[in-house]
Design goal:
With 332 residues, the protein is of the alpha/beta class. It contains nine helices and twelve strands. The chain has a domain of 193 residues: 3-Layer(aba) Sandwich (Rossmann fold), CATH 3.40.50. Strands 6-7-8-3-9-10-12-11 form an eight-stranded mixed sheet, with helices on both faces. The chain is globular.
Length: 332
């Protein structure tokens, strides 16, 4: 029996491009193009990649905040790909989102008590106002804030505290799956570790499953059980965290690891500088989408998109080069 809480199969999201108001779409931006992965119960799976790789779109598709162009989404073995808004309501209580921007994601006109009470009212949690107030106080304590903070407004908090409020709002309905969309990228470096450690603590205490979306491999290396690397709408590598850091199998992963900071100031790393920008998803390269920037590309890389295949237990890559020995994360 599958232990996966979230299953993604051949997921696609193509955005139509029109030249005029009444014209028909002749081209599509392939933001997500044939993505497959599972998120096992109780694990943290991180999706990483450059801006424009499609990782945030994957998270929003998994939450059914966007309608997929194709593929399937299964939550707790139930196909939710095309469920109606009413049919999704009980499932939304079980899957919640932590937004990237703690400043834009909280209503500045509402006190924290109202912000945290909204999910309770929507999902009919708590029979009386007193019960809901107690749940708000419990949620604030859970994320390291005090019950008296419920009377304050978002502008009275720091960025890190606001993100804690956002996490409390996501957790107050008792979800099983948390989709964290770059939850620390807008925070000061000194605060990022606090929020990441909070998520790890909450995961253990509440038995959460987390889909963590980020571009910083230093962050995901600390929080993740497995890492999925995306490039131009496709997965290019999936592996357990230690395996990915110790033996990357895709050239794009190697380049990302070379850009991650080393905590030891006495060590230096040879940075791999990729040539050019990420290609447009409106007109991606033929074959391997990374070949136009890959230092190891061969003419055969332009022929067909390489499938994501298993090269060792739990470690998959989408690359035809099996003869490469790539540099691990801590190589100098």
């Amino acid at each position: 029996m599958s232990q996966a809480l979230l299953e993604i199969r051949d997921l696609r999201k193509w955005f139509p491009v029109k030249s005029g108001l009444f014209s028909r779409a002749r081209e599509h931006v392939k933001a997500v193009d044939g993505v497959n992965f599972d998120v096992q119960r109780g694990e943290v799976l991180s999706v990483v990649g450059e801006s424009g790789s499609g990782k945030t779109t994957v998270g929003r598709l998994a939450m059914r905040l966007l309608e997929p162009t194709g593929g399937a989404i299964r939550f707790d073995s139930q196909d939710i790909t095309h469920l109606s808004r009413n049919a999704m309501r009980p499932i939304r209580r079980r899957m919640q989102l932590v937004f990237q921007d703690p400043y834009a994601s909280l209503n500045p006109r509402k006190p924290v008590s109202s912000i945290l009470s909204d999910p309770l009212e929507i999902h009919h949690i708590g029979a009386t106002p007193a019960e809901r107030r107690d749940k708000v106080a419990e949620a604030l304590l859970l994320v390291g804030l005090r019950p008296e903070h419920a009377a304050r407004y978002p502008h009275e908090f720091s960025g890190g505290q606001r993100q804690r409020i956002g996490i409390a709002r996501a957790l107050i309905s008792g979800p099983e799956l948390l989709v964290a969309d770059e939850p620390v990228s807008a925070l000061d470096v000194s605060v990022q570790a606090q929020v990441v450690n909070l998520l790890l603590e909450l995961k253990e205490r509440l038995g959460l499953t987390i889909l963590f979306i980020a571009h910083d491999l230093a962050v995901v290396g600390h929080i993740s059980d497995r890492i999925a690397v995306m490039y131009l709408g496709r997965l290019v590598e999936i592996a357990p965290t230690a395996s990915l850091f110790d033996a990357p199998a895709h050239p794009y992963t190697e380049a990302l690891l070379s850009a991650a900071p080393i905590p030891d100031p006495t060590l230096r790393r040879n940075r791999i500088l990729l040539q050019g920008d990420i290609p447009s998803p409106l007109n991606p390269p033929s074959g391997c989408s990374f070949r136009t920037r890959c230092p190891y590309a061969l003419p055969a890389c332009a022929e067909l998109p390489p499938p994501l295949r298993e090269i060792s237990p739990g470690h998959l890559k989408a690359c035809i080069r099996d003869d490469l020995t790539l540099r691990p994360a801590l190589s100098s």
